[in-house]
Amino acid sequence: SQQGEEDPQALSIQEGENATMNCSYKTSINNLQWYRQNSGRGLVHLILIRSNEREKHSGRLRVTLDTSKKSSSLLITASRAADTASYFCATVTGYSTLTFGKGTMLLVSP
Amino acid sequence: NAGVTQTPKFQVLKTGQSMTLQCAQDMNHNSMYWYRQDPGMGLRLIYYSASEGTTDKGEVPNGYNVSRLNKREFSLRLESAAPSQTSVYFCASMGPTSERTEAFFGQGTRLTVV
Q1: How far, in Å, CA of B15 to CA of B88, rounded?
Q2: Exposed, middle or buried: residue B98 (CB in 10 Å: 0-12, 13-18, 19+)?
Q3: In chain A, residues 27-66 whose CB comes closer than 8 Å to chain B
Q4: What is the SS3 assignment for B83?
Q5: Are A36 and A44 spatial neighbours (Cβ–Cβ below 8 Å)?
Q6: What is the pLDDT of residues B24-65, one digit of tens each?
């Protein structure tokens, strides 16, 4: 079964609102990464957080990691219509095993 | 700098036919991956290669074979295609975990098996 599971499966918000997506995983990790995918295209990396880090920021993105709960969250602040996409968390375990969750579909309406 | 290049972009196969999906990266990455993406299932790992000369099964390896031809190239072969293998396939590569590198993806191959 897949290592990561995102929640919610789908999220619909208005422009200017914040969007929060959660990810839970099953085994110890080296790092956790978040990716974005627009309409069936290739995935684009957003942010990486290592297992010994608790919070990372990049522009309007904020990622937290709680290794005791095996969970992470991605916050997108002041959402824009252009943020509409699917978002995936991915975990790196062992030497380089990279596995993904099922994703959250985010719809930001103008 | 092309990143990760996948070919072909589209393919239609008949049940039982074989084909090879090609993937090449020019970032000198050790690790390479093949995923399939189906609606509602996210990306599922088929096979990966942590370094040249090594390959390992992922979550859904049945019906597939891979070859890590050299450090740049990692191919995925379907020996006898089945309709259940209709999917979008993505190749990716990633640098060493110790260097905090992310994965880079190809644009995908949309495969239909009829």
Answers
A1: 17
A2: exposed
A3: 30-31, 33, 35, 40-45, 48, 50
A4: helix
A5: yes
A6: 999 999 999 999 999 888 899 999 999 998 999 999 999 999
